[in-house]
Amino acid sequence: ENEKPTKILEIGTAVGYSASCFVKYAPEVIVDTIELDEERAKEAIENVKNIGVSENINIMIGNAVEILPTLSGEYDIVFIDAAKSKYSIFLEEGIRLIRNGGLILADNVLYKGYVMSDYNKHKQRTAVRHLREYIKEVTESPNLETEILEIGDGLAITRVTK
């Protein structure tokens, strides 16, 4: 099925680059995106205005853990690119908010290869543990079908059947 998505939820706006790309690819798409860092969010608001896609992009400033439970509606795609330690919470909310057959994309799941190796430096240990939990969850849950692509730092693509 080659339908273009109409509603995308992005967790982690950064400077608005991915959100803008989504709109460039599917001009009728609406992107709801959440950014914790106020400075970055302001930069994103400027960027999407300059690119001319601000009507399609709704930037929410705040903590996704608090904002997500207040959202409703059905998204075609949920894109997770934020705090690694919260990926499992984001997944749970993503599953709640996604339409049947929708896709949850999680970026950086292989985290420089550390997630699949025995690498155990203290600084990265927690992130690695959380990402391993995320991968375990999306690959073992019966209503989730996941493929992990080794693009960049790893992209997990999960199709949700409800």
Describe the structure in your own words:
The protein has about 160 residues and is α/β, with parallel strands linked by helices. About 35% of the residues lie in helices and about 25% in strands. The protein has helices spanning about 15-25, 40-50, 65, 85-95, 120-140, and strands spanning about 5-10, 30-35, 55-60, 75-80, 100-105, 145-150, 155-160. Helix 2 links the parallel strand 2 (about 30-35) and strand 3. It is globular. The chain starts with 6 loop residues before the first strand and ends with a strand. The mean pLDDT is about 90.
Residue stretches low in confidence (pLDDT < 50, at least 5 long) are: none
Strand content: 25-35%
**Total DSSP helices:** 5
What does the main sheet amount to?
7 strands, mixed
Task: Give helix % range.
Answer: 25-40%
> Biggest sheet: strands side by side, in what order?
3-2-1-4-5-7-6
In short:
The protein has 162 residues and is an alpha/beta fold. Helix content is 35%, strand content 27%.
